[in-house]
Every structure is written in structure tokens, then in C-alpha cells.
Design brief:
The protein is mainly alpha-helical. 38% of the residues lie in helices and 4% in strands. α2 crosses α3.
């Protein structure tokens, strides 16, 4: 977490969206998201999610415990997180298929 007198953390808009998603998901579900949850929300591949998590961890924006599922913790204060943009990549079925 941020200490008094430290400047706010720097991250790209895309990194901010991942941080905001992890934070919001954890608040709503009581546990951090799985990588598959992030993959579905952002409409990206598993390697893209994994690489983003590695980047966020290296930058000191999240912490993880290797070998444990759903162990991502956001280290950025809530006041420094951007607003989570809704995902427009999730398909919405507007029809029903009969078998």
C-alpha cells in the first residue's frame, strides 16, 4: 500500500483496468478472480493475462503467491484505481437455438 508522502503509483490505462477489475471482482465475490475470469472479461488469451499479471507484479502493483489459485492482491490504494470500464467484448446472445 501507499505510504504517506509517496506519489501515486504509475501504471498504463490498460494496467489500471486490470487492477480495477481485480479489486472490483474481489469486493463482489469475496475472493480474487481466476486468470480465466480476467480472460473472459477482457477478451484476451490466457498468455496475455499471464503476462499482464507478471508485469503488474514486477511493478509492485499486485502480489501473488506462486502455486496458489486466486491469490492476487492489489497493492494500490482504492483511491488511486481508475473506474472500471464495462467490457464490450463479451458477446450477448440475442437468440435461442432450438435443437
Amino acid at each position: 500500500m501507499k505510504r504517506a508522502g509517496e506519489p501515486p503509483p504509475e501504471f498504463t490505462p490498460r494496467q489500471g483496468q486490470y487492477l480495477a477489475f481485480i479489486h472490483a471482482y474481489t469486493l463482489v465475490n469475496g475472493r480474487p478472480p481466476a486468470q480465466a475470469d480476467m480472460q473472459r472479461f477482457f477478451g484476451v488469451t490466457p498468455p496475455a493475462v499471464h503476462q499482464m499479471l507478471l508485469t503488474l507484479e514486477k511493478a509492485g502493483l499486485i502480489s501473488r503467491q506462486p502455486g496458489m489459485a486466486r491469490c492476487v492482491t492489489v497493492l494500490v490504494g482504492q483511491d488511486n484505481l481508475p473506474r472500471l470500464d464495462p467490457s464490450n467484448t463479451q458477446p450477448v446472445k440475442s437468440y435461442v437455438t432450438r435443437y
